[in-house]
Amino acid sequence: MVEKERTLCANLAAACKYSIQHLNDNINALHDSKIIYTSSFFITSNFEALVQVAEFATNNNIPFGFNLSAVFLIQFELEKVKKGIEHSDYLFANEDEAAAFGIS
């Protein structure tokens, strides 16, 4: 993106196609993680996977990074965003996302 600071440049198709089955088949691979990071885009495509990974991080004392990702998610999915924040050790946002969350 030109002349705009972004915290994340995402391929949303990846989040839209991610299956809970893939997560369940590979959850053990997360045990050796030093940090787990995800974006809020999973809220609209696979919220169950986002919550499962966030809870896994919390339950296994693995630092969890969570990216607010987009203003529209804060505007329309605030309770789900808060669920991700509840588990996060690190929260990422650009200026617009932070401002939207601040007034929510």
Whole-number total of structural domains: 1
Distance between the termini: 27 Å
Rg on CA atoms, Å: 14 Å
Structural class estimated from helices and strands: mainly alpha
Strand content: 5-15%
Report the strand count: 3
Total helices: the number is: 7
Arithmetic mean pLDDT:
90
Low-confidence stretches are: none
* Main sheet strand line-up: 1-2-3
Order of helices and strands: HHEHHEHHEH
Describe how the helices and strands are arranged.
Layout: H1 12-17, H2 20-26, E1 36-39, H3 42-45, H4 47-59, E2 64-67, H5 71-76, H6 78-87, E3 90-92, H7 95-102
Parallel strand pairs: 1-2, 2-3
Characterise the protein shown here.
This protein is mainly alpha-helical. Helix content is 52%, strand content 11%. A 3-stranded parallel β-sheet has the order 1-2-3, with helices on one face. The two termini are 27 Å apart.
In short:
The chain has 104 residues and is mainly α. It has seven helices and three strands, in the order ααβααβααβα.
Search tags:
about 100 residues; mainly alpha; 3-stranded parallel β-sheet; 7 helices; about 10% strand; globular
